[in-house]
User: What shape does this take?
Amino acid sequence: MEIEDECQECKKIGKCGACPFMLNWVKEHRKMNDISEVEKIIKEYYNEASCGLFFNRNNVGDKMINIYNKNGIQIDICYDYRYFEIFGLDSLQKTELTKFYENLK
Assistant: This one.
């Protein structure tokens, strides 16, 4: 569905903003944009962090540098041991990003 299309639930054109269908579409569209942006960052920094992708904080005190923080998503990089830490993704986004990362190798 494009944002200019008629909403099948409320029959309004454009951003009706009231019906659950449109609100869900907007939410899903934002998620797709977020993961696309995260993929660009991962690809850009891949050579500096090609040893791993993690979705939890390390507990050994590795020095982390934040390289992205937007819409509740945070990407940190450890240059010393060449890995990413990523926070704020749901399980589907984590799966998609893991596949994307593995295909960069």
Notes: Residues 35 and 93 are 7 Å apart (CA to CA). DSSP finds two helices and four strands in the chain.
